[in-house]
């Protein structure tokens, strides 16, 4: 049999194993709802105050800046591979592109986005 | 043999799934995921055409690269606004954001 | 293959303006207030528009066919730059209270204008798609910039709905690429018209046309695809609503002209009936649903949807005359719609409300604002003597010429009905008494200039449309020949 068939068998039995065991658990276990059982877990003690964590803005800002420079990298890779055949024009254009993104970074810096408060 | 029709069929199925997801999800993150799925379906089309119709040029792949980047930027902006709205309204359920109505 | 930087100079200037404003913002200790930046932006946009006028007859295809500079593109670039200049002036009034994000606002306005200019100059599908998405993302951020709840909802709604429609558009573009093997519009047109396509192209072309048409119908708010525009126009800050109505919509029409007249002309018999249906739905629904509205921004949103229904009639007469009519109507529509939204901005800045009842007795509180609103809305209605009448006449003439006299008749009837609701608005302004504790509305000099320009253009082209008609005739002749 071809390699893909072997992979197909692996995939099928892997998924079947996972879902099969979940099915067995669903069939064999009991499940009764109790409000105390669905309280958030805090090492066995009762919680004090609301249990939702305040979403910190900094994580999102760093993720956003990472995304922007990551897609810049996506464009830098093909340019770098063909750099010697592309000539001066492409170099100047890429310099302008990176300069614009550095300007955006400077703006983010000045706006205090990069400070971890 | 995997022919062009297989890729196009998969692209069409993905587009349909993405469209269904976008229109039926209430969570705004789910809606954005459906949008991503639709854009990726079009990407799949582009890359498949680049492979089968013009095997010597990679124009379709370059287009797909640009589309991936644009989709990333769009979703980032969408998430930023969704976070802003979540802070104000306390919910990501799109049904609850109904300040603007007919 | 010509790599000609001089073809890109207008866009580079606009992007340079945006980056310059950003640098000024970064270097300043305190946030810069809206007043100087707005005037700088207005002067810069006007200067760049004059530069494009100077280079109007230039026609070249550069960068391997991906960038087209022709009179059509230059005409629309002048339109977009004028729109941006007028919106800059109106923004000074709406940003007058705060300066927290005034710089970012004008940076984004410049970038949105550059995006619109890229859209109309795009010669291939990739540049076109990048330009459309660039425009969409900048408009989303402009809508949500002041972080109010309504504005953020409007921004998110626009983002999601635009993403759906541009995903459909992208799928259509991928099918066009697959049929022809090239992304350049000219080459695609030759290949699919020549019939040298794959065997399965029988289904691909209709699907591609449907998807591309629905993507552009979203951008221009034609009726089954108009739902986003009402809510987004309502939630966005009023000058940005004006920018949506005049800039984004005109960009949608410009790219519709370019793509349909270049690529899909051999199958006009297939998509013209669809456009007829869209047009009838649009001008009927846009004009009739405006009647019960109580908010001026929703009212003007429906009015602009109605106008879009008339502009698309020029596309139904898919000939040179139709294109001329579309170009003419687009230009005068910009001035009239901007005037109406600018009055709404001025009233909102003073009273904080965009309800139509806030306009009550406007003639006593500010005769200048009331007169501007009256003339601009009557132009949108198509009253003789103002530019809108000439525009509608031109459109109906082009449509009758192609044998759709019944469509023109329907358009005339709905247009006459629409005068009713515009006169209702005039009644509120001139006959009703002002609210009890209202003062004279102070209008800033920048707003006075913007309103004066729009009133002047509306009245001037109404009595003497000759120069504009000559211009659009030349532009359409260079485009279609």
Characteristic key phrases:
heterotrimer; A: 117 residues; mainly alpha; Methane Monooxygenase Hydroxylase, Chain G, domain 1; 3 helices; 68% helix; 0% strand; C: 481 residues; two-stranded antiparallel ribbon; 2 strands; 1% strand; globular
What do these coordinates show?
- The complex is a heterotrimer of chains A (about 120), B (about 100) and C (about 475).
- Chain A has helices at about 5-30, 55-80, 85-110.
- In chain A, helix 2 (about 55-80) packs antiparallel against helix 3.
- Chain A is flat, with a radius of gyration of 27 Å.
- With about 120 residues, chain A is an all-alpha fold.
- Chain B has helices at about 5-25, 30-50, 60-90.
- The model of chain B has no long low-confidence stretch (mean pLDDT about 90).
- Chain B starts with a helix and ends in a 13-residue tail after the last helix.
- By secondary structure, chain B is mainly α.
- In chain B, helix 1 (about 5-25) packs antiparallel against helix 2 and helix 2 packs antiparallel against helix 3 (about 60-90).
- Chain C has a domain at about 265-480.
- Chain C has helices at about 10-25, 35-55, 70-95, 100-120, 125-145, 150-180, 185-195, 200-220, 225-235, 240-265, 270-290, 295-315, 320-350, 360-365, 365-380, 385-400, 405-430, 445-465, 465-480; strands at about 60, 65-70.
- Chain C has a two-stranded antiparallel ribbon with strand order 1-2.
- In chain C, a hairpin with a 4-residue loop joins strand 1 (about 60) and strand 2 (about 65-70).
- Chain C is globular, with a radius of gyration of 21 Å.
- Chain C starts with 8 loop residues before the first helix and ends with a helix.
- Chains in contact: A-B, A-C, B-C.
- The interface of B and C includes residues 32, 66 and 81 of B.
């Amino acid at each position: 049999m071809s390699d893909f068939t072997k992979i197909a068998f692996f995939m099928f039995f892997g998924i079947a194993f996972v879902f099969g065991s979940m099915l067995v658990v669903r069939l064999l276990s009991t499940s009764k709802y109790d409000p105390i059982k669905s309280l958030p877990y805090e090492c066995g003690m009762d919680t004090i105050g609301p249990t939702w964590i305040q979403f910190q803005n900094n994580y999102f800002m760093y993720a956003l800046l990472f995304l922007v420079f990551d897609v810049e990298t996506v464009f830098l890779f093909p340019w770098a591979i063909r750099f010697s055949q592309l000539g001066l024009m492409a170099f100047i254009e890429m310099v302008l592109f990176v300069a614009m993104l550095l300007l955006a970074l400077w703006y983010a810096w000045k706006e205090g986005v990069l400070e971890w408060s | 043999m995997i022919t062009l029709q297989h890729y196009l069929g998969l692209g069409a199925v993905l587009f349909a799934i993405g469209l269904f997801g976008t229109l039926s999800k209430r969570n705004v993150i789910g809606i954005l995921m459906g949008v991503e799925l639709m854009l990726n379906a079009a990407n799949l089309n582009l890359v498949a055409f680049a492979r089968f119709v013009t095997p010597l040029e990679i124009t379709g792949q370059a287009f797909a690269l640009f589309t991936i980047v644009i989709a990333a930027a769009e979703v980032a902006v969408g998430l930023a606004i969704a976070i802003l709205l979540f802070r104000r309204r306390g919910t990501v359920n799109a049904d609850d954001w109904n300040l603007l109505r007919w | 293959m010509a790599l000609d930087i001089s073809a890109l100079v207008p866009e580079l200037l606009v992007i340079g303006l945006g980056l310059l404003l950003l640098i000024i913002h970064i270097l300043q200790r305190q946030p810069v207030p809206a007043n100087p930046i707005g005037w700088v932006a207005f002067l810069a946009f006007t200067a760049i528009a004059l530069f494009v006028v100077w280079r109007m007859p230039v026609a070249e295809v550069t960068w391997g066919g991906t960038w087209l500079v022709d009179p059509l593109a230059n005409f629309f670039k002048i339109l977009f730059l004028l729109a941006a200049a007028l919106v800059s002036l109106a923004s000074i009034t709406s940003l007058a209270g705060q300066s927290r994000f005034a710089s970012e606002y004008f940076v984004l306005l410049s970038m949105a204008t550059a995006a619109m200019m890229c859209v109309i100059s795009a010669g291939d599908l990739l540049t076109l798609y990048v330009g459309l998405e660039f425009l969409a993302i900048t408009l989303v951020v402009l809508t949500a910039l002041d972080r109010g709840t309504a504005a953020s909802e409007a921004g998110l709604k626009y983002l999601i709905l635009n993403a759906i429609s541009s995903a459909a558009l992208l799928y259509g573009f991928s099918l066009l690429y697959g049929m022809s093997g090239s992304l350049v519009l000219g080459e695609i047109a030759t290949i699919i018209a020549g019939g040298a396509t794959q065997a399965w192209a029988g289904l691909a072309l209709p699907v591609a046309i449907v998807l591309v048409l629905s993507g552009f119908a979203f951008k221009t708010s034609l009726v089954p695809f108009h739902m986003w525009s009402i809510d987004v126009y309502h939630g966005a800050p009023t000058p940005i609503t004006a920018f949506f109505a005049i800039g984004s919509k005109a960009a949608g029409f410009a790219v519709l002209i370019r793509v349909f007249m270049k690529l899909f002309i051999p199958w006009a018999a297939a998509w013209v009936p669809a456009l007829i249906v869209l047009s009838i739905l649009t001008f009927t629904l846009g004009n009739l649903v405006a009647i019960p509205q109580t908010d001026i921004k929703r009212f003007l949103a429906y009015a602009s949807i109605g106008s879009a229904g008339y502009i698309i009639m020029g596309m139904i007469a898919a000939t040179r005359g139709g294109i001329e009519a579309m170009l003419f109507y687009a230009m005068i529509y910009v001035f009239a719609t901007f005037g109406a939204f600018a009055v709404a901005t001025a009233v909102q800045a003073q009273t904080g409300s965009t309800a139509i009842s806030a306009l009550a007795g406007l003639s006593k509180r500010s005769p200048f604002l009331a007169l501007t609103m009256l003339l601009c809305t009557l132009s949108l209605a198509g009253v003789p003597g103002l530019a809108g009448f000439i525009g509608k006449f031109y459109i109906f003439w082009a449509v009758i010429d192609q044998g759709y006299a019944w469509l023109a008749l329907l358009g005339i009837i709905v247009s006459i009905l629409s005068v009713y609701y515009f006169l209702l608005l005039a009644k509120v302004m001139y006959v009703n008494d002002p609210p009890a504790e209202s003062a004279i509305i102070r209008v800033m000099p920048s707003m006075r200039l913007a309103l004066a320009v729009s009133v002047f253009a509306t009245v001037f082209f109404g009595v003497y449309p000759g120069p504009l008609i000559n211009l659009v005739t030349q532009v359409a002749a260079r485009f279609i020949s």
